[in-house]
Amino acid sequence: MYIGATYIGKFTDREFIFEVFDEANRYFEENGIPLRFVYLGKLELGPGYLINIPTEKGNVKGYPLEAIIEALYARLVAELQREDGLPIDRLFGLTTFPLVSRNPYFHLYERFLGIQQEITGMKVMVLSIKPFESENRTLMKKRVLKGILHELGHSFGLEHCSNECVMNPPEDIADWDSRPVAYCDSCMRKLHGALTAELLLREEKERKKGR
Ligand SMILES: [Zn+2]
Ligand SMILES: [Zn+2]
Q1: Confidence at 55, pLDDT banded by 50, 70, 90
Q2: What is the Å distance from ligand 2's center to 182 Cα?
């Protein structure tokens, strides 16, 4: 099963994005998870979307989450409409901008760990690398990778857990660093179950189409 991968914003270190999605693919492969990220190119958002967000540390430029979700969804639909497009129904976007929302109930912890949303059966996920920034590139990559696995887990119906697991939400960054880059046994079982169910459903749809 393929998941589209894209990024939004200016990355000074673009290799970072490829490396982190590659590492996710390696994790899937090593654990027999039938998922692969495929890179779909940069996602362009018009400058008109950029807004100034007042924070404790002064004004920060950012895209409202709603605009990012919409753009990701449009990109996913465009991919599906292409003749030679990949059969994807999920798209993951990494952004350099902090995640901000017009929704006042937008939780601090979602700002940190990103968000996933389902629109007409398709799932888009977005994660900001901002909270994970570090001088230590390897450490930063691990932090982001865990964030990717966390949001992806939600997109397959996984809920938060309290084990040593990427699905265990952190109190702070130190807490996040203490998590292994892995799903716990229980979450792994649930993920495999959800994947099997989804693949079966897909096969059935294909069969019906073929008739
Ligand atoms: Zn979560
Ligand atoms: Zn777990």
Answers
A1: low
A2: 8
Q: Which top CATH class is 2-210? A: alpha beta
Domain locations in the chain as residue ranges: 2-210
* Segment 142-162 mean pLDDT: 95
How many angstroms does the Cα of residue 180 sit away from the middle of ligand 1?
Answer: 16
Distance of CA 196 from the midpoint of ligand 2 (Å): 18
CA 121 / ligand 1 centre spacing (Å): 19
Question: What is the DSSP annotation of 46-114?
Answer: -GGG-EEEEETTEEEEE-BHHHHHHHHHHHHHHHHHSTT---EEEEEEEESSPPB-S-TT--HHHHHH-
pLDDT value, residue 81: 86
Among all bound ligands, the one having the nearest atom to the CA of 167 is: 2
pTM, 2 dp: 0.89
Q: In this predicted model, which residue has the larger pLDDT, 122 or 50?
A: 122
